[in-house]
Design brief:
By secondary structure, the protein is an alpha+beta fold. It has one domain: Sandwich (Jelly Rolls), CATH 2.60.120.10. A six-stranded antiparallel β-sheet has the order 1-20-17-22-15-14. A six-stranded antiparallel β-sheet has the order 2-3-10-5-8-13. Strand 6 and strand 7 form a beta hairpin. The mean pLDDT is 93. The structure holds fe (ii) ion (FE2). The site of fe (ii) ion (FE2) has 4 residues, from strand 4.
Length: 316
Amino acid sequence: MSQVDAPVPVAPPGYFEDLQAHALSPGWAKKVPQMWAAPRSRFVPAVWRYAEARAALDAACAFVSPEFAERRNLIMVNPVADNIYPTCRNLVAAYQLVLPGETARSHRHAPNALRLILDAGADTCTIVNGVRIEVAPGDVVLTPSWHWHGHRNGGDTPAFWIDFLDVPLVQNLECMFFEDHPQRNEPAAGDAPDSPLRRKGTDLARMAREEGTVDLATDRLHTTGVHALGLKHGERHVQPKRIDNNLYAVVAGSVRMQIEHFGAVELTRGDVAVVPCWHEFDIEGLAPESQLVRVTDAPAFEALGFRNVSALGKGE
Ligand SMILES: [Fe+2]
């Protein structure tokens, strides 16, 4: 990327055509720069509303049959040109609905996943590696890479949750594997209401209130960080530019987010905001007690040894 203060080299006739025929490209005449001074995100800050997604999922029940219960979801596609899937560079999020009596087929895949339960009645569960884990609103359930998982709504009220996965990262790394369970719905050999893969919403609400920030996924998901964040009225969570990408879902109360290149927005329960890398932002609590879940790809950067070089340069 160095700037060379010299005349542009002139190639002999036919030189570049010959290079192209051999799948070679001249480094001195790149069409587009391949390095730059500081992170640039292809993706933009965006917000999704639970009320809108829930209404659209309710409408989908009229024509998306129970056989598709595991895919009756609405993907939060980052609104940049030509994007059809990721919510940000390495993560994707989706609202999902499983109706009473439905099951979502068991499967396993290379991507890590977690779900944040928004609404669910009794007898709603995820079966992870043959163990039944009951879930309730506010719970976070982790399904690490290559763990069998399926879902069942045995109650009488619809279950809504938000799925978060590192599918875009796995696609970029080209290490994708996927397998449906041979028995369609994996049988449950036992119950584990206190499974380490489940963080109960009641505990998270208390811990977020008392501790401010709670790490939910240490050592469970190698690529993805999950945190509960508690904010009292008027309390602010201020973030400088970061190299990682962050998603925030409101679990309780309401907040105002101010995001660079986006502006101010108020979010309430079930709403989701994505803040791609290198955007300053802050979150302010509007209710007496607000709680959010943060999902981040920060552990992937840490594992690979990448740091916020510009912050380090300032001695931070
Ligand atoms: Fe899955």
